[in-house]
Amino acid sequence: MRPFPVVALLASASVARAQSDPCSWLTPAQLSKEFYGQFKPPEKKPAPPVYRGQNPGTQCVYNGQRTVLLTVYVDKSAAEAKSTFDGLMGSYFKVESKPSGLGDEAYFDTHLGLHILKGKTRLFIETGFSDSTKAHHYSGDLAKIVLPNAG
Fold it and tell me: What pTM was computed for the model?
């Protein structure tokens, strides 16, 4: 009887680690299904903090028929995340449109990258489409896949 709790603890720890790695939030299989082509496992890179004293982020680069970027920052608090999100919106990134139903707040920048705020987590998704209709569609679909893991 004793091995069961140990196995359960190991499985639980493994799930917690997987959920804490933003590159596990979006898999090559999910991208292959979305874009109808093969994708390699993500290349994980550090993303520098926006401001001194903030947490660094994680950038996940998925290469396949196109390059898809997922960048995730988990800030120290929801207030810090909101302040950073608001500070970047309009000053560093020009707003093209604001979709509804994605996190607490979201916007597409003029380069068609999708920025999302959810709690103390900030996300950026770039699909590489230059057509705004396609960029909005695919980035929105990918956001719906990753957002349950954020915040």
Answer: 0.84
Edge-to-edge strand ranges of the sheet holding 121-126: 43-47, 57-63, 67-74, 121-126, 114-118, 105-109, 95-97
Answer whether residue 9 shows pLDDT above 90. Answer: no
The residue among 68, 74, 56, 62 whose CA lies nearest residue 19 is 74
Tell me: pLDDT of 31 over 50: yes
* Residue 141 neighbours by CB under 8 Å, 6+ apart: 34
**87-95 contact pairs (CB < 8 A, 24+):** 87/50, 88/50, 88/115, 89/115
